[in-house]
Each structure stands twice: as C-alpha cells, then as structure tokens.
Amino acid sequence: MITRLATRAATRAALAAGDAQERLVSVGPLRAHPLTLAILGIGLLLLLVPALLSPFRLNLVARYLALAILAVGLDVAWGFGGMLSLGHGLFFGLGAYAMGMHLKLVASAGALPDFMNWSGVSALPAWWGPFASLPVALVAALLVPALVGAALGLLVFRNRVRGAYFALLTQALVAIFALLLVGQQGYTGGTNGLTNFTTLLGGPLSEPSTQRWVYFATVGGLVGALLVSHQLVRSRFGRLLVAVRDGEERVRFLGYDPATVKTVAFGFSAALAGLAGALYAPSIGIVAPGMVGIVPSIEMVIWVALGGRGTLLGAAAGAVLASYAKTTFSEALPSAWLYLQGGLLVLVIVAAPRGLAGALRFPRERPEAPERLAAEAS
Predict the structure, then answer these.
(1) Does pTM surpass 0.90?
(2) Cα–Cα distance between 139 and 316 in angstroms, integer?
C-alpha cells in the first residue's frame, strides 16, 4: 500500500513538473512554432521588396505595413478579447501626432512652426519642446496611447461596460478627439494638420534612401508586433484573455479579475496603434484630423474582419489588401469606392464569416479554453 501511494505521488509530481515545463516553454521568447517561423519568413521576404519596387510604390507599401501593425493590435483586443473598438483612430492619431510634432520641429529649424505664427501663438508651448528629440517622440507614440487606453479600460471595464456600449463609447471618444484637433488650431494645425516635413535623422524625406530606411523600420515594427502578439496570446495571459471573451462571469467566479485582463490587453492594443501612427507619419508626409476620425476607425475594424479575427497574420493581410484596394479603386472610381468597400464587408460577412484567413485555412491561434483555466486553478 505504501509503495503504491508513493508511486502515485511520484507520478503526479512528474506530470506536474512536465506540465510546468511545457507552460514555461510555451511562453518563451521565440518558441519554434509554425506561426513564428511564418512571421520571420514573411519579414525576410519583405526586406527584398525595395529591390523590386520604385520609390513611390515602396512608400505605399510602407504605409500599408504601418496600418497592418494597427490591425494586429486591434485583433488582439477584438479577436482575442472580444472588445470591439470603433475608436482606434484615437490611439493611431496620438502616435502619428507625436511623430508629426517631432518632424515639424525639425523642419522649423528652431523657429516657431508656421501654423502657430498664423494662429497668433507667440511662443512654443512647453509640452511641444520635448518632441524635438526623436527618442522622446517614439516613446510618447507608444506610451501615451497605452496610458490612454489603460485609463479608458479602468474606467469602463470596472463598471462592466462591454459589447455595443463599449463600441459606441470608443466611437464617441474618437469623434471628440478629431473635434479637439480641429478646434485647437494654434497647437495642432487645425484642419490642415501638421505638414511640410523635410528631414528625418538628418536625411531628406524626399530622398529614396530615407524612404527605404522608413520602410525597413516599418517592416521591423510589423515583425516585432506580430511576434510579441503571438507570444502574448499563446501565453497564460492569452488563454485568460480568451476565457474572459468566452465566459467573463466564469472567469470572475474562478477568482480572476476580468477588468484587469481586458485593461492590459486594450492598453497593449493601443500601444501598437500608436506605433503604427508614428511609422505612418513620415511615409505619408502629413498628419491631419481626417486620418483619425470616425470613418477611418470603422475602416480599421473592416480590415480585421476582412482578414480574419483571431489570426494575427490574417488581420495584417486584411489591412494590406484593403489599403491596396482603396488606393487602386479610389483612383479609378473615386465616387464609388465607399460603396465598394461596404459591399466588400457584406460579402465577407456572408460568404466568409471568419475572413480570408478562415476561407484559406490560415493557421489560427488556439489558446486554451476556460475549462483549462479551471483545471489549473484546482
């Protein structure tokens, strides 16, 4: 009897140790997972693109890839966390304006930016000064959206606001943000926004060599966003995030705080949107309120729906394809593009509810179900 009990105890200990080791490996920095290899492979292929495209086309691809970063972050919040945000333009705009302020200060060469002179502002505002440093601008592009997203999460998720109410709230916030940008013309450039960027890190933005470096930085940002998001959703936190999406009350019953989980995920999603905005600004050469309003925020949701929720790679591909289609068809059919875009969304919802990734059987992230959490907690 004693021997049998000892054997069972040793077996349970070995299984527990093996399970712990498996969980430790699963959240390692670069586990040899097929999707990790696919992300790295795509990144290597993207590095070859500058040799195949003209500078103009390369600049367009850089914009598409920057928007793909935003789609990846939105997919983490919506696809894995069930938080439908119709206001991610707010976080994208914060990142874009942070980089735009740096580029504008560099272009002004120590003088007051032109739109401030036109608006009667006599001295550079104190909060503009730090953005003369590129590292400060980059940190602000990540940190400010993350803090705003986390603060919004704390206020909203603590009160158990979710579903359509949360979506409408985010839409209202981005509308307020766009109106604030227009109204504060002396500090934001108003309707015209921030324009006339000239140099980045000492290189003229119009030069193909500078645009190539912007492209390479965008590729690095996209690969990094995909890898970090992939590891996040496959970690214990990712399994908990999916459990909150599928059964928030069950997760709360198990002793976890769904509001904290959703807040962290939403803050992370906002940070990726800010990074996308910072990389998008030097590629397009202008930052304006029209880029961050309600309509662009809805388009961001369409990208993820088109590519496929809960796939990461699918969301990124959806952003690239939708942006390319917008560039192509809006040039050929400018008055009909919005109708085509709406029809495309309806077609995807009816014919491929899981997006292109589901239709083409892209690899999907498969975090554990809530029942696994219950087993681990017991």
Answers:
(1) no
(2) 23
